[in-house]
Each structure stands twice: as structure tokens, then as C-alpha cells.
Amino acid sequence: MSLAVLERKQCARNLALAGNGPAFAAPLHVGRPNVGDRSALHRRIDAALDRVWLTNNGPLVQEFEGRLKELTGVRHCIPVCNATVGLEIAIRALDLSGEVIVPSFTFIATAHALQWQRIKPVFCDIAPNSHHIDPSSVEKLITPRTTAILGVHLWGQACEVEALGAIARRHRLEVLYDAAHALGCSYGGRMIGTFGRAEVFSFHATKFVNTFEGGAIATNDDDLAAKIRLMVNFGFAGLDRVVYIGTNGKMSEISAAMGLTGLDCMEYFTSVNYQNYKHYRGCLSGLPGVTLLAPDSSGKSNFQYIVLEIDALEAGIHRDDIMAVLHSENVLARRYFYPGCHRMEPYCSLDPLASERLQWTERLVNRILILPTGTAVSTSDIELIATLIRIAVQEPEECRRLVRAHSKM
């Protein structure tokens, strides 16, 4: 992004919606993949090709697991082909059935991993002024059919693990966590990955450390880990010996090569994310109705997400109008996790009144906006993105008019 572009985008009449060129020539995505050291990646891939060992728990997958265990401090961190399959396997390995309490404010895969196995996800509200599942609401939803609580760590910050663990113990429930956002993060002096019976990480391409597609199931339970290892590989306990039902959840060597390369660069990726967060914070400070979520300072964060809350009354403009302005400028900001799992199929048909108990979720899904970050974003990019948001807030009526006019074309 050139200084000339920044100088040109200083008021609503200069916006792309007003017929001008976009601020960015190419789309700027949320979660654009970090690649790391390509030469190191190529060496690992070449070695896998030379060995002609591309899957079935090869040396790179084993090394990746070892590195994950070292990072998280957990006894087992089993790589899998993706985090959704990881959740499904963890859920099945825990023998869950009936109902499982889960937040609606999460990616749809969290709910689908339950419903896919004919387990009913019972959607729970988030706590007021929080993005995480509300423990006090969890307890009210427990029935004789409830078998577990599935918590979600969002934006690299842990949900209330102590409160959820206490509820689970009182009611003899299992507790596990979707930790897709939380690699390299900690809570209360413990690394995420060590809580509950199991936690599931994601290494999807959009995550700051990725394996193209991939995930991992972390647990300190030796018996559960042994069961999961069987399930990941069709139930094989040796050559021609199947002892348990399973599926194909294995990670490939090529994916592990990418994961190892990402782990090599993890400190650098985190540093870039942190610097981007600080720059966004400075550029957006003082803007009415726009709040940048601050990571919990008591634990480690990967700063993987730039999370804005837009208060439409205070800002004078709705989140969706700001997003429309950004999209027209090739800044592809995202509405996480709009409109909430409870408003998607099949859940909106199965539980049409869910929104009545999810007032804080309903509020938040209309306020959240996620901005691009990572190694693909420069400080000058951030300054321009912040300028576009500032224009939308400072000239809300004109921006709304432009958005409406553009939507009719």
C-alpha cells in the first residue's frame, strides 16, 4: 500500500463505493496462510519423498507430535487430518451420547461434530460482556440426558475452565475443549491442551501455525490416548489386527512437514501478530463505538485474531455497513460467528426457540468484526484499514447511503 493511496482515502467521497478504485489491488483476507521458511519446508517434503513414506505415522508426524507435546506440556498430542475429525474422534472416544452443552458462539464444526454422531448439541449462552460460555447458564441446562460440556477457547483465550470443571465434577459429566484458536496459549500458568479430558487444536490453513489441513487431540489420559490412537487408524492394533471401531483420521507426512516448519517460525509469527495488534490498537484508539478486544494479560496469547466489537448506537453505524465499506476496498473482514450455530441448519429447525435463551450471543454476533492480520499485513496496511473504519464512523450517514446504493446495483 502506497502513501498516495492512504492520502487519497480520507473521506467518504474517496471510497470505492463512491466509484473510486479500491484501497487494495488484491483481496486482503482474514487468516491468509503463514508459510514460514520455504526452503526448510521443501527439504522436509523432499526427505519424505525420498523415504517414500507419505502417511501411516511417518517420521515427520512422529516428530510433529513430539514438538506439540513439548510445547503444550501434555503427555499425548495426537496429530489428525483435521480438527473436525479430531473433535468427532474425541467425542466418540469419551463415549458421549444424549446431550452435550456447547456454546452457540463458535464455528459450526463444534456443533456438527456432535450432531454428526446423533448427539444433541444444547446451545448455551455466553456470559455477559464475555465471548465465552457462561458457567452459570451451563448448570441450568443440565438434564438426565446430559453427558458432557464442550467448552470453546476463543481468540486464544481460555474459557472458565475451573468453573466448568467444578460443574462437570458435581454432575459427573465429561468436559472437553475445542482449542482450535489456542495453540501456544496459556491460562493460570498452564498451557492450553492440559485441561479437561481432551482438547482439540486446529492446524487449518487459516491458523497461524498450519499443516495445510490438520489438527491434534491433546490429553493427559493414557487410556483415552490409546483408544484415540486406535480410532485414528481404523482400529488397527498391529498388522492385520483390528481390535476397535475406527476411521481414517491420520495426518499425512506432507502436512506434518508444514506443521514442523510452522513451529520453527512460531515465535516470529506470534511476534508479527503482537506488533499488528499493537498497531491496530493505536490506529483505532479513541474511535467511538469501536472496541478492540484485548488479550488476557495473565496468560500467553498467540494474538492470532484482531477482534473488534462495533456498538452501532455509539458508533452511529452498524457493523455490517462498516464491513461493506471494507469489502468494497478489498479488505475482506469477517463476521465471526454470525449468525450463531443456533440459527443455522439443522439446529434452527430442531430448536427454533433457542434464541430466547441466548440473548448475549444474539447481541454479540451482530457486533463482532475480524480484521486481517499475520505476515501478509504490513503496518501501512493497518493504517489504511483503520482509516477506512474511521471514515465509516465519522461519516456514517454518507457511508450508509453509499452501501444502500451499491446493494441495489
Secondary-structure map:
Elements (H helix, E strand, L loop, with lengths): L2 H6 L19 E2 L8 H14 L7 H14 L3 E5 L2 H11 L5 E5 L4 H8 L4 E5 L10 H7 L4 E7 L8 H11 L2 E5 L7 E2 L2 E2 L6 E5 L12 E5 L2 H11 L20 H12 L1 H19 L5 E3 L13 E5 L1 H4 L3 H10 L2 E2 L14 H4 L8 H6 L3 E4 L7 H16 L1 H12 L2
Parallel strand pairs: 1-13, 3-4, 3-5, 5-6, 6-9
Antiparallel strand pairs: 2-10, 7-8, 9-10, 11-12, 12-14
Helix pairs in contact: 2-9, 3-9, 4-5, 10-15, 12-15, 15-16
Could you walk me through the main structural features you see in this protein, from its secondary elements to its overall organization?
This protein is 40% helix and 14% strand. The model has no long low-confidence stretch (mean pLDDT 96). The chain has 2 domains: 3-32 and 266-333 and 372-407, Aspartate Aminotransferase, domain 1 (Alpha-Beta Complex); 38-264, Type I PLP-dependent aspartate aminotransferase-like (Major domain) (Aspartate Aminotransferase, domain 2, 3-Layer(aba) Sandwich). The strands form 4 sheets. It has a 7-stranded mixed beta sheet, sandwiched between helices. The protein is of the alpha/beta class and 409 residues long. It is built from 16 helices and 14 strands. It has helices spanning 3-8, 38-51, 59-72, 83-93, 108-115, 135-141, 161-171, 222-232, 253-264, 266-284, 312-315, 319-328, 347-350, 359-364, 379-394, 396-407; strands spanning 28-29, 76-80, 99-103, 120-124, 146-152, 174-178, 186-187, 190-191, 198-202, 215-219, 290-292, 306-310, 331-332, 368-371.
